[in-house]
Design a protein that fits this description.
By secondary structure, the chain is an all-alpha fold. The protein has one domain: Arc Repressor Mutant, subunit A. Helices cover 72% and strands 0% of the residues.
C-alpha cells in the first residue's frame, strides 16, 4: 500500500516537472519571438508581443506555436500586422 502511494506521488511529481519545463520552454520561445518581431518591425517589446498575441488569436493558434513559426523562419514577422490594442509606454 505504501509503495503504491509512493509510485503515484512519483508519477505526479514527474508530470508536474514536465509541465513546468514545457511552460518555461514556451516562455523562452515567446520571448525570443518577441525580440525578433520587435527588431524586424522596429517597435518595442509590448507592441511586438501584442502583434504576436493578436495574430495567434486571429488564426486560432496557440501563442507558442506562432512564436515557434517566427523563430524558425516559417512566419515572417511583417505578416503579423499591427497590434490592435497595444499601449505605448
Amino acid at each position: 500500500m505504501v509503495s503504491a502511494h509512493k509510485e503515484r506521488d512519483l508519477r505526479r511529481s514527474s508530470r508536474l516537472a514536465e509541465q513546468t519545463l514545457t511552460a518555461l520552454n514556451d516562455r523562452v520561445l515567446v520571448s525570443h519571438a518577441v525580440g525578433l518581431v520587435a527588431g524586424t518591425l522596429d517597435t518595442d517589446q509590448h507592441r511586438a508581443r501584442a502583434a504576436l498575441s493578436d495574430y495567434a488569436l486571429r488564426q486560432r493558434r496557440p501563442l507558442p506555436e506562432v512564436a515557434r513559426a517566427v523563430t524558425e523562419g516559417k512566419l515572417d514577422p511583417s505578416a503579423l500586422g499591427s497590434p490592435s490594442n497595444a499601449e505605448a509606454d
